Amino acid sequence: MLTAVVLASLAVAPAWVQAVDRAYLVTMLTRIVIFGLAAMSLDLVVGYGGMVSLGHAAFFGAGAYTAGALTYHSLDGSTLLGVPGTQQALVTWPAAAVLGALLGAMIGGLCLRTTGVYFIMATLAFNQMVYFLFNALEVYGGDDGVGLFAAGRSIGPLDASDDVTYFYVCFAVLAAFVVVLNLMVRSPFGRVLRGCRDNPARMAALGFHTYRYRLVAFIISASISSLAGAMAVTESQFLSPSFAEWTESGELLVMVILGGLGSLVGGIVGAAALFVLEEFAIDITDNWQFFVGVGLLAVVLAAPRGLTGLVLGRGRRNV
Amino acid sequence: MSELSCHGLRKSFGALVVTDDLALSVRSGEVHALIGPNGAGKTTALAQLSGELRPDSGSVRLDGTDITHLSLPQRVRVGVARSYQISSIFADFTVAENVELALQAVGGHSFRFFRPARSNAARLKRARELLAVVGLTDAGEASAQRLSHGQTRQLEIAMALASEPEVLLLDEPMAGMAPDEAHRLAELVRSLASDTAVLLVEHDMDIVFSAADRISVLCEGSLIASGSPDQIRSDPEVRRLYLREDAEAEN
Fold first, then answer.
1. pLDDT tens column, B112-122
2. Which range of residues forms the domain containing residue A131?
3. Do B2 and B74 share a domain, yes or no?
4. How far apart (Å, rounded) are the C-alpha atoms in residues A17 and A23?
């Protein structure tokens, strides 16, 4: 129900910001959708799987670099490992999702051999490795990054160069994954995942190979985050290592916790809260993240189920 | 007819030998109780039989097949299930969901992503049957955290039964129960033993002597006696051990 309200509000938001003469806010709305998608995929791992990943920017960045590199070579007329570049999102986005899944299998496969604080540190370590790898890619401008402004936004036959059109493309992707992920957390797989979060030792005693289920959840999450990264670079048309910066991992976690762990829709709510706060608080002070700190403290202390928990009520567990 | 046995089982943590050349067996149709003073190594022995702990040496066999190298989840699949001394259920799930989860563990893989977990009619039915077996028929839709201590132990057993085990390892299932609850559970354990081998680690001597067909006494990691309840009752070494305990308790 709350999910439907959030999606409906997002769907009418572009019309609303245009009506109040703030059309420039459409790009912010698009970023809410994209980061909301990434945060929602992180919630699958953190909220439902109990795996606190501080490395999801590695996947977000990998997706951005996959789509960005293909676009760059298309503009440049050169090839990437013998493959010609392309600006077609129907190619660059799935490519990013596949690469994200592969990277997720590698990183998750190793990190999931640890738990707790060590898992957090292991994911952070991989995040840093990926970040510095992108920094070293001189062909894409090293740490300065590279502009891709000459590229259009082709999604199949659709030209989404217009910001409102692009918003709705991203919104459609988000809505699809809201449905898919909500089915997933209620499926037999989702139940096993929650069991692994609550009591891994007992899960093993029941006969589950908990590692496999956690790893598959991690791969799914990495793949979706990577897709979101590709959507982000298509939006900004600027490729730089900042997509993969570890602070980005922290920001995604903040979104999930602020919105409400283990609720899926909380990731979108958290992303919206953060971007709206940035938009308005930045007029008061450049150090607007001070208010994020205050808000996060308030949520952690007073509303452990996050903003969505406040709406849904205290007693109800999300799933 | 199945039989779980171990031979020459040895396990030490540093200099401390917790299992010392242990040989045990439990057959279907019997309740075999494992008793001994605190720190005798009962739980450690059970952990090696269930696959949670690897022994330093020795072997565990199921119907003659060596299963020493099998992990805990793998042993569940070949028919060895266990329950825990400290209740270990899923508090955020409903009672029925706890059992359904246990059924999922053995009903093929759970990489099913899109159908609701509660849409499997056969599984729901089987969960209801198992809850009826342990006497929790009416509690199915309650949240598991609302169960009384005794009911939690009953749920533990329903979950262990989900894998249709040939061998059931119960670690102090009656711990902390009121006497009448404990005796009801003891009756349940007895009835399970008609087609399952039950190894019962238990402190309550009344229950052990009334429910067990065979009793083994563990002390400092090794077996000091094994036999029928009558034999154990009259065994001088066991009497000395437990009399000493009583005397220490009085001091």
1. 898 888 888 99
2. 28-245
3. yes
4. 6
Cα–Cα separations (whole angstroms), residue B41 to A50, A270, B47, B67:
33, 50, 10, 21
Closest Cβ opposite residue A207 in set B52, B73, B111: B73
* Alpha carbon distance A63, A42 (integer Å): 15
| Residue range A48-107, pLDDT digits in tens | 999 999 999 999 999 999 999 999 999 988 888 888 899 999 999 999 999 999 999 999
Could you tell me if residue B245 is inside a domain? yes
Q: With an 8 Å Cβ cutoff, are B110 and A195 in contact?
A: no
B111 CA: distance to closest CA in chain A (Å) = 5
pTM for this prediction: 0.88
- Residues in chain B within 8 Å Cβ distance of A202: 84, 88-90
* Domain count of the fold of chain B: 2
- Nearest alpha-carbon partner for A71 in A248, A232, A225: A232
Residues from chain A contacting residue B73 (CB–CB below 8 Å): 204, 206-209
- Interchain pair A186, B117: CB under 8 A: yes
- Assign residue B226 a region (left: φ > 0; alpha: ψ between -120 and 50; beta: otherwise): beta
Residue of A nearest to B169 (CA): A205
A198/B90 touch (CB, cutoff 8 Å), yes or no: yes
pLDDT tens by residue, A127-161: 999 999 999 999 999 999 999 998 889 998 999 99
Q: Does residue A235 belong to any structural domain of this protein?
A: yes
Nearest CA in chain B to A190: B113
Rounded to the nearest 5 degrees, what angle is found at the Cα of B50, between the Cα atoms of B46 and B56? 75
Residue A211 burial class via C-beta count within 10 angstroms: exposed 0-12, middle 13-18, buried 19 and up: middle
Q: Are residues B118 and B157 in the same domain?
A: yes
Identify the helix (H) or strand (E) that includes residue A52: none
- Residue A55 sits at the vertex; the CA angle it makes with A167 and A289, to the nearest 5 degrees, is 65
- Residue-range definition of the domain harbouring residue B67: 1-79+166-251
Q: Name the residue in chain A with its Cα closest to that of B157.
A: A206
Q: Nearest chain B residue to A186 by CA: give it.
A: B116
Considering the domain boundaries, does residue A296 fall inside one? no
Residues B220 and B178 reside in one and the same domain: yes
CB spacing of A187 vs B105 below 8 angstroms: no
A207 vs B contacts (CB less than 8 Å): 73, 76-77, 105-106, 163
Cβ contacts of A263 on chain B, cutoff 8 Å:
none
- Kindly report, residue by residue over B63-100, the tens digit of the pLDDT: 999 999 999 989 998 999 998 877 789 999 999 999 99
- Chain A residues with CB under 8 Å of B155 CB are none
Domain boundary among B114, B133, B164: B164
Contacts with A209 from chain B: Cβ below 8 Å:
73
DSSP B151-184: HHHHHHHHHHHTT--SEEEEESTTTT--HHHHHH
Q: Number of structural domains, chain A?
A: 1
Based on the fold, state whether residues B226 and B174 are members of the same structural domain: yes
Q: Is residue A83 part of a domain?
A: yes
